[in-house]
Amino acid sequence: AGVARQRDGDRRSRSRPRMMLVTADDSTGATEAGAACADAGLMVEVVPIGVAPAMAVSAEGCTVIDLRSRHLSAGEARRRIIASTDDTHRVHKIDSTLRGNWAAELSALVDGGRRVVMIPSHPRAGRVCIGGIVHVNGIPVAASELGNDPRLPVRSSRPSETLSGAELADSDALRRWLATSASGAAIVDAVTLADIDQLAAIAFVVDDVVLAGPASVVEAVAKLCAPIGGSASLPDPLLPEPIVVVCASLHPVSREQIARVAGAGIDVVTSSELRGSHPDVVAAEVAERAHRRVDEVRARTVILVGGDTAEAFIGDSVVRVFGSIDVGVSLGDAEVRGRLLRVASKPGGFGTANTLLDLVTR
């Protein structure tokens, strides 16, 4: 009977569009989450914390609040997510490699009376959870290069060592946990997008649950909220010229990407690979130079690489997100310092060496 009720709930969740409120812990993560929602057919705005949305969220709309909490204290991260949560808040987007204050943020939701279902998998980017351990391209995340991240090294590949919660192996285990646990958090294995879709459909119909995970989890929930058969409506052209690429990220993938774009004659504003100042100071300095370059060349498109870069450049602007144009790469429009710009954003470690080059030359 419980399974039958669950299936009825699954069908009801797809019977009509729902308003959606998402939180995310950094700026590229917020626009990536927004793109996942737009891909499902929702109208999406990404709004910095403390800034009012530009549009009224309708039943077919989504607001993503950019908490900008990844590099703050755990206490401030807790305060920000608590201040941003209401009954429509059903998803928190976290870093797919377990960087940041996600454990403090999810604990704050549990302390506030919500149950949390964490699915720390993003298969399109090679990140999956098996046996309670998050892997990046087959390697436990703490044993990968993320374990040596200069700013936020990942110390454990097992989320339950940081967030108190039950480790669950599959959808049946999740159903049992939801039926028997009145509070707390669960961390659920997932390897494929189909796994994530199934887990999201089970958890989403339970009103007190907040799902947490990378963009694949946001995508799964968005498909439950959006009109059936909905899809993104991307502008044409995608990236109107002139284009300026802005990067304060030191991730090796990002550095190779911007080197190839610069080699193709695209304007690139970046930082030294030697980090002497605090990353926030560096990002702010790069953003200021980028604004000057945008004005000089009358750029119509900016490509922002890395969360610190995006936050510093966008400032308090609201981004109207159209959808995804590559794995982790969002596309939108924003009025930044009085100029309407097409904005593409990409997390620092995402993609191949040719990702940006392919985008600007296709």
Structure report:
With 362 residues, this protein is α/β, with parallel strands linked by helices. The chain is built from eleven helices and 17 strands. The protein has a 14-stranded mixed sheet, sandwiched between helices. A three-stranded antiparallel sheet has the order 6-7-8, with no helix packed on it. Helix 3 crosses helix 4 and helix 8 packs parallel to helix 11. The longest helix is centred in the C-terminal third of the chain and has 19 residues. The protein is globular and about 60 Å long. The relative contact order is 0.16.
Task: Set out the fold topology.
Blueprint: H1 2-13, E1 20-24, H2 27-39, E2 43-48, E3 61-66, H3 74-83, E4 89-93, H4 102-111, E5 115-118, E6 127-130, E7 133-136, E8 139-140, E9 166-168, H5 171-180, E10 185-188, H6 193-204, E11 209-213, H7 215-225, E12 243-247, H8 252-263, E13 267-270, H9 279-297, E14 301-305, H10 307-314, E15 319-326, E16 329-336, E17 339-346, H11 355-361
Parallel strand pairs: 1-3, 1-4, 2-3, 4-11, 5-10, 5-11, 9-10, 12-13, 12-14, 14-17
Antiparallel strand pairs: 2-15, 6-7, 7-8, 15-16, 16-17
Helix pairs in contact: 2-7, 3-4, 5-6, 6-7, 8-11, 9-10
Question: What attributes characterize this protein structure?
Answer:
alpha/beta; globular; 362 residues; 14-stranded mixed beta sheet
